[in-house]
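[step 3/7] inverse_fold.run input=structure_tokens len=87
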């Protein structure tokens, strides 16, 4: 897998904070920034609220919504159980 360089501008205080955090994580500054940036990117994408459904799948999606709910026996059993704090 090939890699490329990504430049980020930070002021002296920010760099100092990042270096200290990298030391506490027992890693290099570059690896720390790379890992934290990827974690932030993954979280950003997971929190996405817009769901896009392709036009050709819209009727299938509506049919799925209109279909009667299927019985989930495990969920039904769980709903009848007392909570841990009620035992």
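[step 3/7] decode complete -> sequence:
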């Amino acid at each position: 897998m090939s890699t490329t360089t990504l430049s980020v501008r930070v002021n002296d205080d920010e760099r100092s904070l990042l270096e200290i955090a990298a030391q506490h994580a027992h890693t290099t500054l570059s690896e720390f920034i790379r890992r934290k940036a990827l974690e932030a990117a993954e979280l950003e994408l997971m929190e996405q609220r817009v769901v896009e459904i392709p036009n050709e799948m819209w009727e299938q999606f509506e049919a799925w919504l209109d279909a009667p709910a299927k019985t989930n026996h495990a969920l039904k059993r769980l709903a009848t159980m007392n909570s841990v704090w009620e035992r």
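[step 4/7] annotate
The chain has four helices and no strands.
The mean pLDDT is 94.
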